[in-house]
Specification:
10 helices, 5 strands, about 10% strand, globular
Length: about 240
């Protein structure tokens, strides 16, 4: 699902214009994002849309946006189906959902709909800028706070009658949970190896076992599945 955007480099960014469309119905929030995005320098070009129809219009008129920052709760939005429609309308424009909602299910559905990132509006400016840089570099951003409190390895699992996702979490070793947390932060295999003091081959083995535990096919699906498991575990515990 990862993409490569030629106009944007992985570090420092190229000198070409960086065109971003801010789609949010709150003028104050758009103003805050404009101020934050000034860190990209003079090459930054920002346009704004205050509802879904205006977003569609601008994407139809301009074919070289580098990024769409999308509020899920704008007037005219129809949930995740609107994300799918926008992805179909402008398949070369990476979309980052920015929302007040922070559940793992919302994140999963946004990524499944084609979004390249999901940033809670409660995020710090530093986290938001890191997320933007990751997506502009062709990666997928997921909020790491969803995985900050994974259950202990031998702490037991909450049985849900079907060998559910919390049982899958319990099958991970402490080291595999360390790898999973770093995956949630968008770290590459090499970066994970450096942080944990492991050989790259060992990291690949851990990731393969994580994918097998959650019965998924890639690292993004694994992170979302683990976050959903954590949400489910907290709900049942409550």
């Amino acid at each position: 699902m990862e993409q490569s955007f030629s106009r944007v480099g992985t570090s420092g960014f190229a000198d070409a214009p960086l065109r971003i469309l801010l789609a949010d119905d709150h003028a104050l929030f758009r103003a805050g994002l404009r101020h934050l995005l000034k860190d990209f320098g003079d090459r930054l070009q920002i346009e704004e849309a205050h509802n879904y129809d205006a977003t569609v219009t601008r994407l139809s008129q301009v074919d070289d946006f580098d990024l769409l920052l999308l509020d899920l709760n704008m007037p005219g939005m129809s949930g995740m189906s609107a994300v799918e429609d926008l992805c179909a309308l402008a398949p070369d424009v990476p979309i980052i959902v920015i929302s007040v909602r922070e559940t793992a299910d919302d994140v999963r559905r946004a990524i499944d709909a084609g979004a390249m990132g999901y940033i809670p509006k409660s995020s710090t400016p530093e986290v938001m800028m890191s997320a933007l840089q990751l997506v502009l570099s062709g990666g997928i951003y997921l909020p790491p706070n969803l995985l900050q409190t994974l259950p202990a390895a031998n702490g037991g699992s909450t049985q849900n009658g079907s060998g559910g996702t919390d049982d899958q979490l319990a099958r991970l070793t402490p080291r595999q949970r360390d790898v999973l947390r770093l995956l949630a932060q968008g770290q590459s295999n090499k970066e994970i190896a450096d942080v944990l003091g492991l050989a790259p081959g060992t990291v690949k083995i851990h990731i393969s076992r994580i994918l097998r535990a959650f019965k998924v096919h890639n690292r993004t699906q694994a992170v979302i599945a683990a976050a959903a498991a954590l949400d489910e575990s907290k709900t049942e515990a409550g």
